[in-house]
Amino acid sequence: MRQLKDFEELLPMLGNGSRIVMHSAAAEPRWLEEQLALHGSGLSDLNIYMLSPMDAVPFAPLAPEHLKIHAWVPGRGLRRVAGDDSIEYYRFPLSQIPDLYLSGNQRADVLFLHLSPPDEQGRMSLGVSVDYMPAVLAHRPLVVAEIDQSMPHTCGETCVTPDQIDFWFATEEGPLEVVSASIDEGERRIAQTVADLVSDGAVLQTGVGSIPDAMLQELASNPPRNLGIHTGVFTDGVVELANTGNVTNSTKPPECRKMVTAMAWGSPSLYKYLDHNDEVEFRSCAFTHDANVLRSMDHLYAINSALQIDLAGRANAEKLGGRVISAPGGLPDFAPAARAASKGLSIVALRATSRDGSKSNIVMPFHDDVPITLPEGQIDFVVTEFGAADLRSLSPSQVSRALIGVAHPDFRNELARSIS
Prior knowledge:
Elements: E1 2-3, E2 19-22, H1 30-39, E3 46-51, E4 67-73, H2 75-79, E5 87-89, H3 97-102, E6 110-115, E7 124-125, H4 133-138, E8 142-148, E9 155-156, E10 159-160, E11 167-171, H5 185-197, E12 203-206, H6 210-221, E13 228-229, E14 233-234, H7 236-242, E15 259-261, E16 263-264, H8 268-274, E17 280-282, H9 285-288, H10 291-295, E18 300-305, E19 308-310, E20 315-316, E21 319-320, E22 323-324, H11 331-340, E23 345-349, E24 362-363, E25 381-384, E26 387-390, H12 396-404, H13 409-419
Parallel strand pairs: 1-11, 2-3, 2-6, 3-4, 4-5, 6-8, 8-11, 9-17, 12-13, 12-18, 14-16, 15-17, 18-23, 19-24, 23-25
Antiparallel strand pairs: 7-10, 19-20, 21-22, 25-26
């Protein structure tokens, strides 16, 4: 573990064709990214692997001449350049990504990390993003770490030891602050309807965005009892709910009766809450999204959003108008597990129309060019501002009619004609 004095010391180790994995989401190693942007024009054929970058990617202008970006989940940081030939998008559920490295199907030559400062034993923490980092570390790449006094030391599967790090540089940036989107009246109505579906003892997985944020706020104002948290992303809304005292995790299996997540993003107060908080356990998505782990939770509620639902009851959470917005993420992992849970529910919540009201988000059956994130039969309820469509035990034609019933009234006749 050697202190890095200048990024240029690394350049001879970043050979043509090198595969560089970046720490994910709010744990993006921004100093290293900026240095790569400054010096990367002297390199060629680099391959950068990212999961849900939250800020504008500083080295993106170097593509495609000097590097190619590979996105497991595009995130906010890549949406402005989505569709560019310099970005390659993958459609793997999060549960499968760690095994791609452990099996050797993916190679990591270099790993850029953003870590907490060392504890009394010299151990650092992966901070607010564990996701697939343990699998990449097990691949034994060259590891370069920003060690950040402002990165929270999180608990769980987060330990990084000095012998795992080749080079380090001191920073004090902290994890990226992610401001929640504003919530409008329609989203508030959706959130109220979703919250009414949540029963005592529910173990919650929530997606990200204004609708999940609003739903967590609704639950916090009138919480069911004995809730549990097992999710992919821990947000400020989860903290608000936990502070009610109604998150006990008592209906979870005995071996994981803590709040569990793969990553977190949000406000500085969220990061302060997570620092040395052993009530929140960060785990690899090989665990958080694992089918066997999820099947052990009888009360699992998967509450997510999507871009579109078609009249067959299928969800598209990835692409809109030919533009890549996101990736499957954890939706294909959590939804079927919650659908199968004896006391759980798979819920997809979305606005009935685009924000300007010009297009329905309840649509006629998808064409072949639309990615199907969830096939039919994996959603219990579809919720819009016009109510909740209960799709359980319905025939295909009944599913279509139920979905038309929660579409915006301006589009219902057109949708009905498509199935007549």
